[in-house]
Structures are given as C-alpha cells and as structure tokens.
Amino acid sequence: MTATDQALDALALAARAADSKGGDDLVALDVSGPLPFTDVFLLVSGNSERNVIAIADEIEDTLREAGVSTLRREGHSTGRWILLDFGDLVVHVFHPEDRLYYGLERLWLDCPAVPVAPLLAG
Fold first, then answer.
1. CA-to-CA distance for 111 and 96, rounded, in angstroms?
2. Which PANTHER family match (predicted)?
3. Residue 67 CB burial class (10 angstroms; 0-12, 13-18, ≥19)
4. DSSP string, 57-109
5. pLDDT tens digits, residue range 11-46?
6. Helix (H, G, I), strand (E, B), or coil: what is residue 114?
7. What is the mean pLDDT of residues 85-90?
8. What is the pLDDT of residue 1?
9. Is 43 helix (H, G, I), strand (E, B) or coil?
10. How far is Cα 3 from Cα 54, in angstroms, rounded to an integer?
11. DSSP summary character for residue 18
C-alpha cells in the first residue's frame, strides 16, 4: 500500500507549519503497509519544551484551518513528546533527547521515507 493523496496533502501542511516554527529534522514515513489505521508518520524535533508545544500548536491550527480535525492529542502538557493524530497522518513532535531515546526511526526502519524537502518548497 501507499499513502493516500489526502494523507500526503495533510503531511505537506503539517511539514510547512512545523518548519515555520523552527521544527528540526523533519522525517516522514509511509507506514500504510504495516499499519491499517494511518498512512504517514511525521517526526519533528523542537529545541525546547516551549518550542515543541509551539510546533504542535501551529500544526494543529494549520490543519484545523484546512478542515482536518485532530482525533487525539497526547503529551501537550509536558512538551517532551506530543502526538497529534489526524487519522491518515500522525505527527510526533519531540524534544531531541526524547526522540533519540524512543528511536521511532529505528522502529519503522522498513517503512519508506516520504521526501519532506519538496513539501517545504511547495
């Protein structure tokens, strides 16, 4: 399977929103093969707890304005690892230490990467 156009459109919006708030090391993975409930993971790092929260808030606001509802949000109060579930897209915004510790890139190594740089330019 491959990610749907709807998931890729949401990914582009989320990536641009994260980038606008200083999100670092954006990585998108097509997880539609092994996971039946979502198509794409977007992993983003913020440089502090405040920055992690600001990035997550901007992503949520941007997608809401585009008509994409947040189905679930976890971790917002701590600003260490915020998970935003939009259905076809799940965004993980990490503090760098937590991203390294949990290593989602290693866990989903078999999933194809979705190039993020072209999304930022578009």
1. 22
2. IOJAP SUPERFAMILY ORTHOLOG, MITOCHONDRIAL ASSEMBLY OF RIBOSOMAL LARGE SUBUNIT PROTEIN 1
3. exposed
4. HHHHHHHHHTTPPP-EEESTTTTSEEEEE-SSEEEEEE-HHHHHHH-HHHHTT
5. 999 999 999 999 999 999 999 989 889 999 999 999
6. strand
7. 97
8. 60
9. strand
10. 27
11. H
Nearest to 40, CA basis, from 98, 80, 88, 109: 88
Which amino acid is residue 1, in one-letter code?
Answer: M
Nearest CA-CA partner of 111 in 49, 38, 31, 45: 31
SS3 25: strand
Whole-number Å distance between alpha carbons of 16 and 8: 12
Beta-carbon neighbour count of residue 105 at 10 Å? 16
The full set of domains in the chain, from first to last, is 5-121 (3.30.460.10)
At 22, the amino acid letter reads: G
Helix/strand/coil for 45: strand
- Lookup: tokens for 75: 């971790």
